[in-house]
Design a protein that fits this description.
Helix content is 35%, strand content 0%. The chain has 3 helices and no strands.
């Protein structure tokens, strides 16, 4: 998986350009070795942060295979039941 909640100050907390540079250097090359790449999982769908998944996708040289999705609502429902 790319980065956990790069848009969250309590998690990866990365700007789009920094995350893309790290992906291109460290994560993207793993695909050539057979790895399945998973996108960063953002904390919010609103885009009110320094991280943009759309801009990230345009800035990376190797695209991901699976898009990660975070849902705390599902986790809460599982814990209640």
């Amino acid at each position: 998986m790319g980065f956990n909640e790069p848009d969250g100050s309590g998690q990866a907390n990365m700007a789009t350009a920094s995350a893309a540079a790290s992906w291109n250097k460290d994560i993207g090359p793993l695909k050539a070795k057979g790895a399945t790449l998973i996108s960063p999982a953002t904390a919010a769908a609103t885009g009110n942060s320094l991280f943009s998944l759309s801009a990230f996708s345009k800035a990376i040289t190797v695209q991901w295979d699976i898009t990660a999705y975070v849902s705390y609502l599902l986790l809460i429902r599982m814990l209640i039941n």
